[in-house]
Amino acid sequence: MKPHTTAHPAHTIPAVSSVFGSSATDNVAEMFKSELETLEQFHRTINSTDLTFEELLHEYRSLGERYENLVRQAGKLTRIGDVAQRKLMNAKSELATQSEIIERANAELQEKNERLRESLEEINQLNINLGSEQSKADNLLLNILPPDIAARLKEGEDNIADFFEDATVVFTDIVGFTNLASLVSATTIVKLLNTLFSRFDRLLDYYPIEKIKTIGDSYMLAAGIPTPRKDHALQAAAFAFAMHNELKRFVAETGYPISMRIGIHSGPVVAGIIGTRKFVYDLWGDTVNIASRMESHGQPGKIHCSETVYERLKNIYQFEHRGAIDIKGKGKMDTYFLIGNIIADDSILVE
Amino acid sequence: MNDILLTKTTTTPAISTRVEDGFLEIAGESYPENSVEFFQPVFQWINDFMTTQKRFLTVHFRMPYFNTSSSKCLLDILDMLQSYHYTSGGAVEVTWWYDEHDDDMLESGKELCDGLDLKCIFAPYSD
Questions:
Q1: How far apart are CA A193 and CA A233, in angstroms?
Q2: Chain B residues with CB inside 8 Å of A3's CB?
Q3: Chains A and B: how many Cβ contacts under 8 Å?
Q4: Are strands A318-327 and A161-175 parallel, antiparallel or unpaired?
Q5: Is residue A63 classed exposed, middle or buried when 0-12, 13-18 and 19+ CB atoms within 10 A define those classes?
């Protein structure tokens, strides 16, 4: 048997058209060339008229063997085809299963992604809230302490005490509150004080003045701390005038019969924070004590200054010499009242 | 006679022969457009080996998948080898390699070799 030789192409075999009809193709015909030749041999044999019985028997046996082989091959091809088909269908089924698994995994992944996205959004919102709270906390701290001091505290500095060679301290005290307390309720007194001191606080936006604290109806401030400046006495004096003017407006609006004493002194101070709870940025030193004495020995509606302040500002403001007064704990001190009316030009104001 | 060296493609197996060693291997999936045309060189090589070499011939098959027309060609190849087995007194051996996890591949090989008198070995491999 010599299958698939090109010496006699299959399509030349007459049996091709009777077996495969008009749909015969060259490669199919070539594939069954041997079988077609057998068929051709069969046709020749049955159409032959000159074969002997023995020759016919021989051809019959030969055809029978070829037929048997053909059936065997057909059976094999069928079974192999079935195996291949089953393999393909299994692969298809497996593919479908894998696709489902992948689809489910994708869906789960999408779900997880969505949950992750939601968690991320929550985290972002928490961060925003945290930032907002942090900002509130910072603002609160800045409301209590100067920015530089607040920053040092946040960085962990726990022993803040700075010496300033030269600064000006101002004390004020509201006069007439005691009488007022007998006329109005305690709540009204507190509200009144809050309104007035809030007005003083707003003035701070316009002057380089550091509010230190309030003690009852007393308002304490300083110039030249925590950032030193050469014109601290001038700024303190200007603020004192602003406070007096603000009080005048307040009295005119409310009709409450109150006035204010102001005391000013310049000199060295120590500024810092003491303690770990409910702390304030406070000042210590003789300068503070003298400033306080200037206030307590002052007069309502006037700004009582020490000689030190006078010497600093005599070329800028007008002063009225009060004379020597007995300052508790300090003995005789020459003091002055700051009148006002700036008399110097800008070249003297700026050092 | 010349040797055959065809590399594997998406639809056709690799085919390699070594006349010197009496070796023929067909490896890979087989579903070409025209199986007869593809396997024609193999038929010719086997025919030439049978008529000119008359030595021991080892044939290896390693085919995970083949279509029906390729099956016909493989049957014809095995028929040629069967014929050589008779004329040479048994100087031919077939090894059908199958993936150890692919029972279908083994079953196909056994089906192809069923009824043949020549020596057929079924050998597993793992990828």
A1: 26
A2: 43, 76, 79-80
A3: 66
A4: unpaired
A5: middle
Q: How far A108 CA sits from the closest chain B CA (Å)?
A: 31
* B71 → closest Cβ in A72, A81, A87: A81
Minimal C-alpha gap between B41 and chain A (Å):
10
Partner B contacted by A70 (CB < 8 A): no
CB contact under 8 A, A77 and B75: yes
| C-beta of residue A266 within 8 angstroms of C-beta of residue A312 | yes
Task: Kindly report the nearest CA distance between residue B4 and chain A, in angstroms.
Answer: 17
**CA distance to partner chain B, nearest, from residue A77 (Å):** 7
User: Is the separation of the CB atoms in A268 and A164 below 8 Å?
Assistant: yes
- Picking from B47, B68, B80, the nearest residue to A77 by CB comes out as B68
Task: Supply φ then ψ for residue A83, to 5 degrees.
Answer: -60, -45
CB contact under 8 A, B47 and A2: yes
A30 reaches B (C-beta below 8 A): yes
ipTM value greater than 0.85? no
B5-125 CATH, one of 3.30.1450, 3.30.530, 3.30.750, 3.10.100: 3.30.750
Is there a contact between A80 and B68 if contact means CB atoms under 8 Å apart? yes
Residue B84 sits at the chain A interface (C-beta within 8 Å) = no
| Per-domain boundaries in chain B | 5-125
Tell me the pTM.
Answer: 0.53
Ordered per-residue pLDDT tens for chain A, 351 residues: 445 654 567 777 777 777 777 666 667 777 888 888 888 888 888 888 888 999 989 988 998 988 888 888 888 888 888 888 888 888 899 999 999 999 999 999 999 999 999 999 999 999 999 988 888 888 888 888 888 888 888 888 888 899 999 999 999 999 987 788 778 888 988 899 999 999 999 999 999 999 999 998 999 999 999 999 999 999 999 999 999 999 999 999 998 889 999 999 999 999 999 877 887 899 999 999 999 999 999 999 999 999 999 999 999 999 999 989 888 777 899 999 999 766 654 443 333
- Contact between chains at A83 and B104 (C-beta distance less than 8 A): yes
Residue B120 backbone dihedrals phi, psi, to 5 degrees? -120, 125
Strand partners, A321: A336
Domain boundaries, chain A: 160-349
Tell me the longest C-alpha to C-alpha distance in chain B. Answer: 40
Instruction: Output phi, psi for B85, to 5 deg.
Output: -60, -40
Which residues on A lie below 8 Å from B68 (Cβ)?
77, 80-81, 84
With a CB cutoff of 8 Å and minimum separation 6, the contacts of A147 are none
CATH, range A160-349: 3.30.70.1230
Q: Evaluate whether A16 touches A8 at the Cβ level (below 8 Å).
A: no
